[in-house]
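Morning run. Coffee first, then this:
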Amino acid sequence: MLVPLLGLAVVGGFEIRDRLQSRHASTELEGHARHLADIADFLAALASEEVHATVVALAHEIDLPEDHEGLRFIGPRLADARAVVDGPRFDDLRREARLDPVLRSLRAAVDAGSIGSDDARLQFSAVDELLETVWRDAMDAVERSGDEEPLPAHLRARVRSLRESMRTFSHADERIQPAIALLLGPPDVGDVRALLEATAKFELARELAEADAGPRAAQRWAAIERDGAFERTEQIIEMATDIGTGAVPPITAVDPGVWVRGLQDGAAWATRLTDVVRAAALDLEGAAANRAHDDSRSVTAHATVIALLALVSVGLAVVIARRVARPASSLEVAARRIQGGDLDLPSIEPAGPRELVATIHAFNDMASTLAAVERHTSALAEAPGGEILEEPLPGLTGLAMQPTIDRLRTTMTQAEAQRAELHERATHDGLTGLLNRAAAYAAIERELARAGRAGDELLALYVDLDGLKVLNDTHGHAAGDEAIVRTADALRATTRDADIVARLGGDEFLVVGPVPPDGRAGIEAFAERIRAAVSLQAVHVGGFAIPLRCSIGVVRSRAATPTAGGLVRAADMAMYRAKHGGRDRVICLDDVDDPRPATT
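And here it is:
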């Protein structure tokens, strides 16, 4: 009797030690989360000062009168924003990021009118980078806490939500510069691509942040959807995208008051995003505090149990006699085997006093339950859908534990399904099922690295549908979507297993893979197969079949090709030459560094 009781006491002691370590880690995590919330508040304060300072710089830049209606409240609001940034609450953060000298110099230039709006935004971006360094250090501390003491699933979700919320804020800032450049004009291809890439990263980070959001962050995301300033700012960014892509003509002149109101909306837009970051930090702080509280309660409970076990052990030691030594020895051997991890035990033959017989029966029941639990937990780790989990746990203890095992199995199955769904949505295009832009770029970077090590080359084909806009305008977007899906089917049917096949957006597709072994002839034949396969596709509208056509730009990288972006841009340039050469054709460039075309 004493051996299992003492064994349980030892197990309880280890549990107390683990819980104390967990409580310490949770308390540290809570402090890190509180620090991150303060940084988010400081980012919001800096964003407010940046917007109002940019308005002042813009007013000086275009000689806008100080009594202009749009500037009436800018001065007081700028002073209020600076007071918040300089407040005692953020003293430590300003010192940690070494911001005071930078801010003094920047503010003096703004007040004197000696700095333009573009330079003001650039210098504020440098200030944001200094503060983001502090943020990264704080997030690294959170990650180290997770490495030292593994975090439960809900805390890991809060950490992911916080990390992706900050990435959303960072990508949002990356969208502003190219959007303003496109609105001021003239449209530039580099600004268009920068805005599209930043928007794609923004949407992906936002989707991931919302997927793991806690209650506060989820509430802030919902509030953003109803916020007028946020919606107006997104509309302005969308207008800049349309101008850059040629969907609408450039703006020739904008009333300064409209710029002032737009920048003020931008302040609210940035503030709402920092509100989400702060809410995510508070969710993490609250979850860590709850875990620390639960650990404290568990320590108290286990200490009580251990004390009771010690009392029971002393009492049993007094009453044990020689006639119970043999069955007790059997119990000892069995308990040691369990302690050593051997749960596959034969049943102990009941013997001795009535109490000892009952104990042996209980021990046999517990041992069989533990063995079954071990089998079930192994099955949960390896295959949550395995048949062994359909078997009920034996004994009364197993009956009590069965609902927990069932709930854990359901939770793990659902979590795995959700993870797979999130990964699919994050890496694949929703209409065609092909890789999306971000996933394609990541795969290309890996292939470039591999090709560089092996001294190989890669082949890139930029496929663009001809006439999709006309098809959309004439027959509706359903017909356009069908054309995109049929093009994706043609690419699947003609590409190779080793090829990366993606939809970059709209009517643009990308195929990247190894260069055929027969060189230029093989490249041309491969590209022509793709063009011909697309040409065999048609969209059926009103009883008529509208054939599809595409223009394809082809480039071949060398082992020194630097980036995925460079390879895709070169293929894009070749595609545009195919467009300008009459469409429904293939244009091949020799490689990324030699853009001389040769048509097929």
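The two ends are 88 Å apart (CA to CA). Good start to the day.
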